[in-house]
Design goal:
Keywords: Methyltransferase, Transferase. The protein has two domains: 70 residues, no CATH class; 154 residues, SPOUT methyltransferase, trefoil knot domain (Alpha/beta knot), CATH 3.40.1280. Helices cover 28% and strands 19% of the residues. It has eight helices and eleven strands. Strand 5, helix 4 and strand 6 form a beta-alpha-beta unit. Helix 4 runs parallel beside helix 5 and helix 4 packs parallel to helix 8. It starts with 24 loop residues before the first strand and ends with a helix.
Length: 257
């Protein structure tokens, strides 16, 4: 992946909330910060904490790994939006390291999200990705979640286990994947074959579109195959986060980790 596309969580409210840069993510709130502090892959830069939060970390035997700056709650309030619930913890850290497409192994799966905007859905997808050992999640810089703690809460700690990479041009990224030997399977309710019946191996990219709109035309054209998830019941389509979990289950059955 080109360096300029290795964005991680970038910009204001990208993934977590706060003022971030391509080299820095901002994490706040008890559970997200605790998970980050306990993740040895997460490089920490700056930690702000209230006295109560520091005491709670100590009581739960959570190592801060870097020296914390003791502050008042209002000092953190001023760094975030008014609706942000930080619980006395604010962390600046580096994005998680993401694998280059050419370095992906035969057992690796990548999720590609084509303009999926609902933070609850994306958070649930991240959690499923962590459960199924996804190597990375690719999102678009535009038309991706702008919510703050909603995404982190929905992900339930998954953000510390799966790199999330934001790219400017999804089509170019899919092109680069193909050139690197990644098989690109787009999920489409009208796909010619079921995902179970589609031949593929790893490394694999599962490409999911937004609810209602589905995959954009160029995204569809850059997939090696389109596949559907057949539903035997009266309801023939699933919420995108549920579809992602089911697709990952099928893919993992065909590509053991």
């Amino acid at each position: 992946m080109k360096d300029r596309d290795r964005r991680g969580h970038r910009g204001h409210h990208r993934g977590y909330a706060g003022e971030a840069t391509p080299d820095t993510v901002v994490i706040y709130g008890w559970h997200p910060v605790r998970e980050a502090l306990q993740n040895p892959k997460r490089k920490l830069k700056r930690l702000l904490a209230t006295e109560n939060a520091l005491k709670r970390l100590a009581d739960e035997k959570v190592e801060t790994r870097i020296k914390a700056e003791t502050v008042r709650p209002g000092d953190i309030d001023r760094l975030l939006t008014p609706d942000s619930i930080h619980q006395g913890l604010y962390l600046e850290a580096a994005p998680l390291p993401a694998p280059a497409f050419g370095e992906l192994g035969a057992q690796d799966i990548v999720l590609v999200l084509d303009q999926i905007t609902d933070p609850h859905n994306v958070g649930a997808i991240i959690r499923s990705a962590a459960a199924f050992k996804v190597a990375a999640i690719i999102t678009t810089e535009r038309h991706s979640p702008a919510a703050t703690g909603v995404l982190a809460k929905s992900a339930s700690g998954g953000l510390e286990h799966v790199p999330v990479i934001s790219v400017r041009n999804l089509g170019d990224t899919l092109d680069e994947m193909g050139e690197s030997g990644v098989t690109r399977i787009g999920l489409d309710s009208e796909g010619p074959a079921t995902l179970e019946g589609t031949a593929f191996g790893g490394p694999l990219a599962l490409v999911l579109g937004a609810e209602g709109k589905g995959l954009r035309q160029r995204t569809r054209s850059l997939c090696d195959a389109l596949a559907r998830l057949d539903m035997p019941g009266a309801i023939k389509s699933l919420n995108v986060s549920n579809a992602a979990a089911l697709a990952l289950y099928v893919a993992r059955a065909k590509i053991p980790a």
